[in-house]
């Protein structure tokens, strides 16, 4: 199919600002749908949790059947540890429910917490692991989830993260302590301070390969260093900007031919520079250099919006796969039996006469 070239008509200018604002409106609707969906499903999740107590290995089987977005982070050793998982609870902790709380139900439903409960196992002493993610907005327009590292008490020689999680937690605690001290002294206004162990953490992150990252390193995910106060300021500024747009609007003038040419040249130059810098990851935020689980936000979304609500589906699929495997084994055994069965030879009349006249062989003495 031939490429379609956008047509720019002076009478019908392309209103990119209007499209962007419309996309923001769609985003607002999606947030409200998530809020109402969670309110409707809360009682059902509680009912499901009560039933799952009676089903052994439910969550272990669910994780075995996890979709590729999650399964890619689970190694064989991770699967052994997840086999001890007895319960998983996902809550959108910033929103409340019930008639008495409707007026205060203004939190962001995209903020989410996870509570993993484990039976005794050979990998760690924790029976409960909890991790929270807060939805935040930055002044540069970025939005996403941020979190704080959660430590795991590994048993001797069983650390699936090879010390990465502990180091990430230690660096975070030192940065947080120094930032608090600086704030108390009236000097803490910039990014989190550089602390002992930070350079070592960065070096270990650089040595990681995608296949070497444990699922449990996800508990060390931080994301951008963005406080609730900074997010609130950015959110307020964005709301004011959108309100001004709705009240006043913006007139987009069609650029002249000369300006069009200049813009095209600038765009080409920017594209060339972007291509040259792709391998250098210049656009990556500085926090990524110490991030031990780069896909932390994506995994949190997949767990909360796919695996957790769809757990019964994945559990059923696991049983169906198990039944198919049993059927396959039985079929293989039948085929092997058929393969060793020897059909009797086809005999003509002469062969039959010779066999009839032949004297039977004597039995050997035992």
Q: What does it look like?
A:
With 366 residues, the protein is an alpha+beta fold. The chain is built from 11 helices and 4 strands, in the order ααααββββααααααα. The chain has a 4-stranded antiparallel β-sheet with strand order 1-2-3-4, with helices on both faces. A hairpin with a 5-residue loop joins strand 3 and strand 4. The N and C termini lie far apart (86 Å). The C terminus is likely disordered.
Low-confidence blocks of residues: 98-103, 251-257, 277-281, 351-366
Q: Biggest sheet: strands, sense, closure?
A: 4 strands, antiparallel
Strand order of the largest sheet: 1-2-3-4
Oligomer: single chain
List keywords for this structure.
single chain; 366 residues; alpha+beta; 4-stranded antiparallel sheet; 11 helices; 8% strand; globular; disordered C terminus
How are the SSEs ordered, and which strands pair?
Blueprint: H1 16-52, H2 58-64, H3 68-71, H4 76-82, E1 85-91, E2 112-118, E3 128-137, E4 143-147, H5 164-184, H6 198-207, H7 228-248, H8 257-277, H9 296-307, H10 311-340, H11 349-357
Antiparallel strand pairs: 1-2, 2-3, 3-4
Helix pairs in contact: 2-10, 5-6
């Amino acid at each position: 199919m031939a490429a379609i070239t956008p047509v720019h008509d002076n009478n019908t200018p392309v209103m990119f600002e209007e499209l962007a604002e419309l996309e923001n409106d769609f985003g607002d609707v999606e947030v409200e749908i998530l809020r109402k969906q969670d309110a409707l499903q809360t009682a059902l999740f509680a009912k499901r949790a009560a039933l799952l107590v009676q089903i052994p290995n439910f969550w272990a089987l669910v994780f075995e059947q996890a979709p590729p977005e999650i399964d890619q982070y689970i190694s064989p050793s991770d699967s052994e540890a997840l086999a001890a998982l007895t319960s998983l609870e996902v809550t959108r902790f910033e929103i409340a429910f019930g008639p008495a709380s409707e007026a205060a139900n203004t939190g962001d439903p995209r903020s989410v917490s996870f509570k993993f409960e484990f039976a005794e196992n050979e990998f760690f002493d924790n029976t409960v692991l909890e991790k929270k993610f807060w939805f935040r907005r930055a002044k540069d327009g970025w939005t996403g989830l941020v979190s704080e590292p959660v430590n795991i008490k590994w048993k001797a020689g069983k650390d699936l993260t090879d010390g990465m999680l502990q180091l990430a937690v230690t660096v975070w605690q030192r940065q947080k302590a120094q930032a608090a001290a600086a704030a108390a002294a009236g000097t803490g206004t910039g990014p989190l301070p550089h602390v002992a162990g930070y350079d070592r953490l960065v070096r270990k992150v650089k040595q990681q390969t995608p296949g070497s990252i444990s699922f449990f390193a996800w508990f060390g995910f931080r994301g951008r260093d963005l406080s609730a106060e900074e997010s609130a300021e950015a959110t307020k500024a964005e709301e004011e900007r959108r309100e001004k747009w709705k009240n006043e609007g913006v007139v987009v003038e069609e650029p002249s031919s000369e300006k069009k040419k200049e813009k095209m040249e600038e765009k080409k130059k920017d594209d060339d520079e972007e291509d040259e810098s792709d391998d250098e990851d210049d656009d990556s935020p500085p926090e990524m250099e110490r991030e031990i689980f780069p896909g932390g936000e994506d995994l949190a979304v997949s767990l909360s919006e796919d695996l957790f609500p769809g757990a019964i589906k994945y559990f059923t699929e696991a049983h169906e796969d198990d039944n198919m495997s049993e059927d396959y084994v039985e079929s293989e055994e039948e085929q092997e039996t058929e393969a060793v069965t020897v059909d009797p030879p086809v005999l003509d009349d002469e062969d039959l006469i010779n066999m009839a006249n032949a004297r039977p062989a004597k039995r050997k003495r035992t």
